[in-house]
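lol so apparently i was supposed to do this last week
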Amino acid sequence: MYLKIKMMLLWTVSLGFIQTLCAQELSYVNYVHIPPGASQEKIIELAANLTPSPRQFNWQQMELIAFIHFGINTFTDKEWGDGAEDPQLFNPSQLDAEQWVLACKNAGFRLIILTAKHHDGFCLWPSRFTEHSVKNSPWKNGQGDVVKELAEACRKHDMKFGVYLSPWDRNSPYFGTDEYNDYFVNQLTELLTNYGEISEVWLDGANGEGPNGKKQVYDEARWFAVIRKLQPDAVIAISGPDVRWVGTETGYGKETEWSMRAATLKNRAELDEQSPKEAAFIIESSSPGILENITQNPSLVWYPVETDVSIRPGWFYHSEENDRVKTPDELFDIYCSSVGRNGALLLNIPPDTRGLIHDKDIESLVGFKNKRTTAFADNLLSGASVSRVESTMTKGLISNALILEYTLPEAITFDLLQLQENIRVGQRIESFKLEYEDGGAWKEITRGTTVGYKRILRFDPVSAKYIRLTIESSRLIPELSEVGLYRQTGSDTDSRKISMDSCFFSR
Ligand code: FUL
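anyway here it is w/ beta-L-fucopyranose bound
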């Protein structure tokens, strides 16, 4: 049943090769309709061959995205404003968007998303369509524009920029009427035309009452069409078709996380025209698990997950939470449980009333970065020779699809496994286990289910010379782009660490 290809290969991490491939425009299948009466084998094949759109692929590779919750709530010390706040309250004394960007960039973040408008409707840019904005605040005598300052700081420091525009608006008199959709499109248009490249548009799912007590019917198809037209490379997240919410605000993703989902899709002609190759509108999706609930959701779609959490208990800054900033250890745990569970981590770092990120948060970000640098300093398998046993079966669900046996020149000590699938081929692995040889017998170290873009597992340190990774179950043949063993505890590579100073003085 298996073709035994016992090749003694020098281990080379194939990531570089994959990145070169990715630079080219490759074909992709972001969604597929399941033909009526399709066999289980056919469904598995369709699922295993789904791949991200280029914008989804680029987004996933960023791994770390910073969220900036800043607005009128910063000054009222609230989490949700009711929309009746006086714009005069908004008055940061030392706002410095470059400080935000440097704090995030030095910690390894690649994209920053700003709450341009939260549920209270207060706009951080001088929108032409409302008086409820920075233009009626004392900050810079009403001449300021936070969106502009952050967009420019991002551009200067080679950081991507995104916007959170809350559909729920507790200030707008239009909310609950047809005019609101025009208002929302007008605001989207301002944000997506006046501030350069936008990489993510974050549309929150909340929809409460507006000032007139009415709920709003959101014309999402129209909004998506505007976003696609104005910023074709931006992912539309959460209440959008490109990126899905993980379902918790703890920062901890699911152990089993398929980027592929069974879905019900709605297509509008104009969206189809703009994105003929992509699922433009997802009504409902569910985890395909063992692909048994496909009949209710007749399509399959690539719909990766974003895991959001705040570095503090609240989303907005509150001085009484200065002692409750997550520690580097907590952030590292969250990283391993978000990025390391096939997601992107969206970490909120809220500036204070000065308009600066507080030292406590910066200290944690620096510690978080240093923990990752130390943990992932060296792939201890890099000196190993590998023997590879691959199944010859190419259809359906495959057991023991791939076995990789590593022989090290001498024993290594490790406590962290990092796996990556080449998602340009698809997400395929259903379960795997890691073992080491001890006195002639293979002993299990750890096991897991899905891998996808990245899977990280931690365990007590193990010392071994012979190590084996078995992909126990896979949808078609999997393609791994990284197998890494690392030492997270007890190793310290000080020379590569960054210091607090780098966040302040490297402009
Ligand atoms: C939620 C909002 O209600 C919170 O205030 C916060 O913005 C979070 C990221 O999304 O739905």
